[in-house]
């Protein structure tokens, strides 16, 4: 079957099998290998991508469901060579080691901060508990999300003021 | 520039600074390539049929229907491996590529279907018909050691290639269920216990756990019938894999190329050879590149930690000085040896701890059973034995009536003192480290009710066998590349080695690149494990840079027409009087050509500063404060303190992050993690059922301390880290629980159920019987459903 959707801001259309998961389609057909697979059972959050800005586990989400929707993967986050504030914050706080969980972690955090950039630590911890990291012990990730939140807040306020 | 000046911490330009990670941008933008992202032209896919039985004879395998399935190219079994040498193993050559004649654990690969795509391979698995004759399985160490025990192997394999090197002691042979036995003894233990004033003894259990590297095992192999084998792998130790592949395929080392891109976590679980020979055999079978991507459920069936039953007794004299330790350690090694003989050796060495013991007697056995093979797990035997050691230190202190911390300080070896006859004296300040952790905990103020605190330590003979070769290429434009066989597994080696090269060559960090590992290009490095990379590869890179500088000096002498003795190395070049030539200028004038490069190299071996082993003692010091919910038995971590006694942190932020990561892994085993077998079946081998630490388990307060006394043999006095902090956590939690509630639990993990039961038992035995709390939860019944081994899932 053929599906049309928006992938990282650009229109896309693909021939897919109805049984294919979003992760399979993104990794194998679109060669977006920044989408990582780990538990394949919606526990670890590694395969998180955004569909209409909502985080989903691409490992178990049927690709069929993305028709006419916007899909954002880690490859679509930076603005050219300018990193998204979350990407920069993950670098600054050494919020990863092996990096395998990082794409999913950043995208989940993006969805949190898009919703509410003035989050408390408790809110970050509660929201991010669906994303596992086996290397860092999470503190660096918490610091990174705090940093990005602080950076995004003025932007958000400005956006609100200018009525964007 | 003199070495003395370079070693002065105040003068470091690049090292000892938390510079940006070399792999950072690639990892936050999704462009970092892992072995699972590799796709080759004409690539086929393999899927594995796994054994449903723990122990069974394979009577016959019928492939006819499977081979007829659409998309299937061929099927590999233990019966059609042709001229390949089908057994591998660096310690014991007991591991077949696929089961041959019999299966030894539920989940053992029996056949590999190779097909055009993953789904076709997957679907054909069901069409393979295997006739088994079930044999009595050996499922625990007690059964395995009985005189009438059924034998897991019963064949006498030969020792692997690494016997005689490292700490691999004699191979006992596998005609019994004993895979390895290690005995450590000095002094007169019996006499010491007979005259000791205080003795504590007990039996402890450290569970079977799964490292859960988030990237499951993967290999892509390309066997060229003209005699060239290339394998992309998620392996930690590419050169060990190369060795096994060369033996299986009878190829010279120059015809086996192992390439390791970024690795998605290992923690020991990706050390040594895993699925590479099998994947390569699939490629050999079909003369095409083949990818074998395991999923996490299959990774659970590939490697786990040795669980350990430890009987231990410790004695002190009337002044509170330790006089003797005796222990018997039984490691459940599972069906194949893998690296458990080394785990056995290390557990026996490390159970002594960083203490002065005049009398020691340790017996450690690694025991074959019909369960998933065990191998390296972060800490390499130390996590298993630090739990009993440090629990017992508290028990003994309390028996004597001494503060546990005081008791430790009284008995800890100081820097320069020997704890093991014949080994390197302690090169760390353990008493100082303990004081730092204790002070950090004390700053929490008076202990709240139902809270408990503990500081524990471990001491590991780390670094493994010191053979590390490295090259540094200095280009005519002043850029530098480091050719290192160390794997970038997340620990930050590509950053740290670049820092060292930049420091030595006097060039900006941005000009230095560390290349990904390729055994066809890089020189031999034994392994990336045992916390060795900064110490050994760091030192090798430093020496390779100094050799390149020496070459440049000779070149400068020639182009300037002056003796070498008149030249001084000065940041990024050579000075002669008022004239200063940079590396590019020297090379351009020497070669009379642009674009050249030179190679500096270093061959480290067990000689010089690395003659004495271990190459360093890795110290783990952790402090915890816990809060106990008595109604549910739930322990939560209030405060976590780690102390990294690392000589010099080449990259302080990454060093701290390693310590926290290791301690968090320790927290997992301490509170939740345990692989549970019910009979032959692993019951919780999925991430739905195996609980690892989550964001919400992060302690309220985290203090990551570094001690930098520049007392190691690595570059600038550095020593390794990253494993120490996993070891003490279990004992820290158990001791803190004792302080909070007066119950002593000698098995990990300290699950709410286990803690709650211990609290109830204590209440029941209390002098004044109290009524049971009406809100207490019922302990959860253990599940007994038997699940078939699930077929592996498809993946892109």
Topology overview:
The complex is a heterodimer of chains A (164) and B (796).
Chain A: E1 2-7, E2 10-15, H1 22-29, E3 48-51, E4 54-57, E5 70-72, H2 85-92, H3 102-115, H4 121-128, H5 139-161
Parallel strand pairs in A: 1-5
Antiparallel strand pairs in A: 1-2, 3-4, 3-5
Helix pairs in contact in A: 2-5
Chain B: H1 3-6, H2 24-29, E1 44-50, E2 56-62, H3 64-68, E3 72-77, E4 87-88, E5 95-96, E6 102-103, E7 109-115, H4 118-124, E8 129-134, H5 141-145, E9 178-186, H6 189-195, E10 198-206, E11 218-224, E12 228-233, H7 238-249, E13 256-260, H8 276-286, E14 290-293, H9 296-300, E15 304-305, E16 307-316, E17 322-334, H10 340-350, E18 359-368, E19 374-375, H11 382-400, H12 404-411, H13 430-442, E20 451-462, E21 468-475, E22 480-484, H14 493-505, E23 512-514, E24 517-518, H15 533-560, E25 568-570, E26 573-576, E27 579-582, H16 583-591, E28 597-604, E29 616-629, E30 634-645, H17 652-671, E31 677-678, E32 681-682, E33 701-707, H18 729-741, H19 752-765
Parallel strand pairs in B: 1-14, 12-13, 15-19, 17-18, 22-23, 30-33
Antiparallel strand pairs in B: 1-7, 2-6, 2-8, 3-7, 4-5, 9-18, 10-16, 11-12, 11-14, 13-24, 16-17, 20-29, 21-22, 21-28, 25-26, 26-27, 29-30, 31-32
Helix pairs in contact in B: 7-8, 10-11, 11-12, 11-18, 14-15, 15-16, 17-18
